[in-house]
Design brief:
Number of helices: 16
Strand content: 15-25%
Bound molecules: adenosine-5'-diphosphate, magnesium ion
Distance between the termini: 54 Å
Shape: globular
């Protein structure tokens, strides 16, 4: 391997040359204590920055191998190191000068969730640490200014790495706390099924966020406090006993006046599929990790989805077992989201009235009398939620502040009152007894168990230069076709969206053959990235085009379902 001096000499030699001369720096260089790998060099100072990695041998990095054996502790440590390194290099960001992106130094920005990211990887067997970052190679105009790059490589990066990537320079207690939190969170997740629960919300948790644009915990919020009847104790391996509200499997209704904290509780449950960092307030809010938020999403496309649980006898006579549209309505989109959630193997639906189609959720008695059944294609969710639990084992947590109709079929009714939950099940059932209960139409069980097959899309699969563009967390374009992901509310991070785009491309090229079912494609892809890392789907050029974060299978299938050109058949 070349030495750092070789790099320095090369950089001196190309100073003041045209920008493309930077390309010669590609390669790996042994620095004192780490290897600097220049993986991809940008074409000009205004282009997307160059890709660089810092590789530190296990002995040198020094992290206890015991921390790396379980994926959840390894991921928590990687996440913590990404944040620490990010803080360190921020001190040097744009401290080297020049035009365009000259001097930029950046790594993945982590939010409140702890995700596996390509930015930072620890090898479980050796402890070898790889950190990937972006560096804007400095230039004045298009003339190389290599003395500025020498500052970055020979001063800034070594200092930042020294301060944040070596076990010996870190506070061991703080690192151990990160590992212990991950173990405690994992313990709760594993304990849920045996306790018959689909979610746990600890006493003292802070659920609301600071604002619509900040995911930090709200200051002076009312801490969560479980109703006595629902309080369970989790005996955590490190923190010891933690009490909180256990939400049992079955059908749970969250009611209460407007602005009393219903949606805030549901949102916390939605994101409880991920672990959260220390001081987030939701560290011990843990949800069944297959949970799926279901909402109305008018305008989305639907390909051969069996929505016959909810939609039948449409005016045009369309077969709703293979429902297809380029422009779904509120109710049909929500029906498709439920059906596709079943196809994805979820065991918990999370539904908020704020984002639901009313006619999908209920049909009141008076309306049933005036508009006869055969004139109404929609069987509302209220008539299906019980059989979904009994026949398919899928629980639901539903926020419904405006209709008491769900009282009949709920197993548990929680009232949010001034941000505090109360168990009002008995009262709600007593009041409901005076009204006639909802009746349901019979349903075909095939609608609970369907698997569609995506068809090959050669125009993209065979295109060697597919144009992928990720515009924030909610929009991707593939060869100019926009894929709208606003309906996937549990996507936590733009890097997950990036990963989904690359996974989709990989699936189109290698897995979608017109025979494999959609869930089989998704399972195979998730297995691949979990075993080999996200690099496995995005390293075609020898370098990672962007920082990627691990998505869930639910969002992967959600992405494929919203990709209009991808035809999926029953
Ligand atoms: P709902 O869905 O019942 O109408 P929301 O969950 O939207 O109510 O909450 C209404 C407002 O109250 C939001 O601005 C939210 O941030 C705030 N809020 C929610 N929970 C708490 C809490 N525990 N402490 C303080 N404010 C809260
Ligand atoms: Mg609300």
């Amino acid at each position: 391997m070349k030495r750092s001096d070789d790099l320095k000499n090369l950089l001196y030699a190309i100073n003041r040359k045209g920008y493309p001369a930077y390309k010669d720096t590609r390669g790996q260089y042994q620095f004192p204590g780490f290897v600097l790998s220049i993986d991809h060099v940008q074409g000009d100072p205004f282009a997307s920055p160059s890709k660089v990695s810092i590789i530190i041998e296990g002995k040198q990095a020094g992290f206890p191998l015991a921390y790396l054996q379980k994926p959840w502790t390894r991921i928590a440590l990687q996440d913590d190191l990404t944040r620490r390194f990010g803080q360190e290099i921020e001190k040097y960001n744009f401290k080297a000068k020049g035009s365009g992106k000259s001097g930029l130094i950046s790594v993945s920005r982590c939010g409140q969730e702890v995700l596996e990211r390509t930015c930072c990887a620890l090898q479980p067997d050796t402890g070898k640490l790889t950190v990937r970052l972006e560096v804007g190679f400095p230039a004045n105009g298009r003339t190389i200014n290599s003395s500025e790059l020498i500052k970055i490589f020979f001063e800034f990066l070594p200092r930042a790495a020294q301060a944040s990537l070596l076990y010996k320079s870190l506070n061991h207690q703080e690192i151990e706390d990160v590992i212990h939190l991950a173990e405690d969170q994992h313990f709760i997740r594993e304990a849920l099924p045996a306790m018959g629960l689909c979610a746990f919300v600890a006493d003292g948790a802070i659920l609301p966020r600071r604002s619509g644009v900040s995911q930090l915990p709200m200051k002076n919020a009312v801490p969560f406090r479980s109703p006595d009847s629902l309080r369970v104790t989790m005996e955590l391996p490190h923190r010891g006993p933690v009490t909180g509200m256990g939400i049992p499997r079955g059908i749970t209704l969250i009611v209460g006046g407007g602005y009393h904290g219903k949606s805030t509780l549901l949102k916390a449950l939605e994101l409880g599929v991920y672990n959260h960092i220390r001081n987030d307030g939701r560290e011990y809010v843990i949800t069944d990790d297959s949970a799926l938020k279901i909402r109305a999403e008018d305008g989305r496309c639907i390909h051969h989805t069996d929505v016959s649980l909810f939609i039948n006898n449409l005016p045009g006579g369309a077969d709703t077992r293979v429902f297809t549209t380029e422009d779904a309505s509120g109710s049909t989109s929500q029906a498709a989201n439920v059906a596709e959630g079943l196809e994805a193997g979820t065991s918990l639906f999370l539904i908020d009235e704020d984002t639901s189609a009313t006619n999908f959720m209920i049909r009141d008695e008076l309306m049933q009398e005036v508009i006869s059944r055969d004139k109404e294609p929609i069987t509302p969710f209220i008539e299906r939620v019980r059989p979904l639990y009994q026949k398919a084992g899928v629980s639901s947590v539903i926020v419904a502040g405006s209709s008491g109709a769900y009282f009949y079929i709920a197993d548990l009714v929680i009232q949010m009152d001034c941000y505090q939950p109360f168990d009002i099940t008995a009262l709600a059932k007593e009041k409901a007894a005076a009204y006639t209960p909802v009746s349901s139409l019979p349903m075909s069980e095939s609608a609970l168990d369907f698997r569609r097959v995506p068809e090959p899309l050669p125009a993209i699969a065979r295109d060697p230069r597919v144009k992928l563009k990720v515009m924030g967390r909610e929009t991707v374009s593939i060869n100019r076709e926009q894929i709208d992901l606003r309906g996937l509310e549990q996507l936590a991070d733009q890097e997950q969206t990036e990963a989904l785009a690359y996974m989709t491309l990989y699936a189109l090229r290698r897995l979608i053959d017109g025979k494999r079912s959609l869930p089989a494609v998704a399972d195979q892809l998730m297995k691949l990235v979990q075993e080999k890392g996200l690099e496995a789907v995005a390293m075609e050029n020898g370098w990672l085009p962007a920082g990627l974060a691990m998505p869930r299978k639910q969002e992967l299938m959600g992405f494929l379902n919203r990709f209009r050109s991808l035809k999926i058949r029953s």
